[in-house]
Predict the 3D structure of the following.
Amino acid sequence: MEPKSIEFGGKDYTLDEHGFLDPPEQWDETFAEGMARMQGIFDGLTGEHWSFIHYLRRKFLEEHTVPVVVLACADNNIRLNKLKQLFPTGYHRGACRIAGINYEFMYESNIWLTYESHGVLSPEQKLTQAGFLEDFEQWDERFAHLVAREWNLTHGLTDRHWEVINYLRDFYRVHKNIPTVYETCQANHLTLDELRSLFPAGYRRGACRAAGLPFFG
């Protein structure tokens, strides 16, 4: 599919086949306002919008990254439901698109940044806004590998990772509850530091999420 152009405020901007600004150097506030209207923000961008947009621009331009949605919310001290109110079409297809971050960059740096518009999950797998599986029974090993890609592990998921993941799944299947981090460490003969080194995203958002366990709180 060929790139297309769009006009905002008398200026033409080139979009890629997914509708994201490409090249991203074209971005300016006129583009942001125009794209916001296309994303259903009809009353104009507020100070809250701009604060979040400029945060994404700084991350993109200065750190060459785009944070996952949970970290972006934490950095800006807003809840996920508030983010949804600000950007009704979502984090990636809404906020990141308005901020002029191009699809190719997000895909190459972290495939999870494009899951809203790129089919990386099995058709039956649905995610919560926080990136957890909605249905424990829809988990598969591919899902765990996709989660682990965020952690930049040198050797990917090792046997030690799978021991913890399988323990968590077995425990939840039997008890319908999530074991405490101490129970998990004890059952797998790990110290807390060893668990943290295995799952750098943390216990709940790392190990439990990769295991397909639900998110509470």
Notes: The chain is about 45% helix and 5% strand. Residues 4-114 form a domain with the Arc Repressor Mutant, subunit A fold (CATH 1.10.10.370). The first strand starts at residue 4 and ends at 8. The chain has two domains: 4-114, 136-210.
